[in-house]
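WARN no homologs supplied; continuing
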Amino acid sequence: SGVWRPQGAPAAVSRGDAVLLAVALEEAFPRGAIASKFALGAARLGGAVGELLRAQDMAGDFGSVERYQHEGARQVAFNCIERGRLFLKIAERYREFFEVTCARESALNEEKANMLQRLADMETEQRATAKRADTATARADTLAAELAAERDMRATAETALEHATHDLDDTREQLGAQNKILAAEVEHLLHMLAAARVDGEAALAAATADLEARLAASEDARDGLEQRMRFTERQMQQLRAGVQPLPPGVDTSAQTDDVDFAGDASSDGDSMQETRQVVAAAPSPAPTRRPPPRMGGFAGLLPPGHGRVRGAHWAISVVVQAYSEKIVADAVSDRQSNPRLGLCEFVYERQLTHFGLRSLAESNLLDLIATVKHHRRRLPRLRWFALFTGLADAGGGERYDTPSHVSFYLFALQQLAYPANLSVLFATDSASDDAPVLLPATAVAEAVRACFRYLGDPDATPGFFSACARAPGYEPEKGLVCADVLVRLLMEEYCMRLERNTAHLRALFQAADTDADGRVGYDDFAMLVRHCSPDVTERMLTRMYSEAVRALPAGQHLLPEELFVRVAHTYGLDRWRIDGALLAAPA
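OK structure emitted
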């Protein structure tokens, strides 16, 4: 163990041995030598204890000092064995204290290393925590701002809800009161309507009876006048036959006495008597009645009748207004994928909507029909309306009373009148009802190009102008073109193209009619329509086919050629044509 232990009884030592032992100790370990060896100074001794204890020769130095201590104990034990043992026990305690101190310092160092590691980990975690804290703080600030905004929005919404609730309650109360008032008014109006209906029926019956009586009286008076006129004509013929020429030199203006012509006295009475007998014996002519008026496309909409002929200005104003409203109605029908109404049906519905009462609307419409038929030969603007409504014939078997003709006509009027309304083309503000409407040549060129874009053939515009230059009445040399002439030329061009379109549609139908029975079913019909219009929807196909089937007798569902062409024209396929370039291209 390195601890000195006396062997047997201690030997006597002199003072010199003790001095030598002290000198050896001072030489081996002078005062401050250990501190100087294991520390850099006395001031750093306390802070360098760990380095001191971890030194490799610390235990050796401690053993050397311990040996000197044991030797000193041996020398003391010579005089007193108990003192020597005491010194040895003290040395053992120092040894134990040194070992415990070293072990404690080692544990402390290990704990310090662990603590340093933990401190480094905690610093890393602290930095991560600080970063998370910063992120959480920013997120919290964002959430706080959003929460504040949400609170503001909620407060605004609650305020708006309160206002809306209050307004809704007020509106509900007002509507309830108005509902009660309207219910009372409706009940009152129903009673008034029933009374008015009874009075109207009675007045209508009385007026009808009065008119019938007046008509019968007028017919009787007319028949009587006709008989009297025929009787007077016969008398005048007989008088002319019985009158002889005057002798030469006789002037009746200077004659004072009655002239007795030869044979006049005897023949006058006889001739009058014979005339009366002939008239009495002649059978009375049968009363003649006017033939029923031509109603055109209005025949199935209102009962036939004779309207009053009004001024041409009035008829033109009504027609222009009907055209303008028809354009709007056609746009709505196209947007809703519905077929366009015919012009006659639209005008009839417009009259009913405008006047409210059917009798008044039909009376006004009869006046319009009579006025249009009266002025159609003189005014081309009314003649087109007569052609579109079937009130007049175009001649040559040509028909204009189709929706496709009306659609192109209205489109052409729109383009020619742009940016004004249609009234500029009908001279409604002019004092004369047949005043020509002159259009600038530049505006006419743009309008005609738009019309040919509508027809799907914009490249044909120059050829149309070349053909117009040879047409009578088309004289654009002064920079102005007559609107009526241009409209006529455009309609002639459209009719020519529509005739070609009809021929192409018939050829397409015959190509799809593989069994040559003159009829096609839904599949062939859908194939034909898709060939003409690849973008057509299934809904449109179903609508077209359903409308065509409704025109067939009950129980039939196969479409004939004429019905296919008519439905195709109704739904905008009047401009389709077979592409000649595709036919000429090699397969």
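The chain has 18 helices and four strands.
OK
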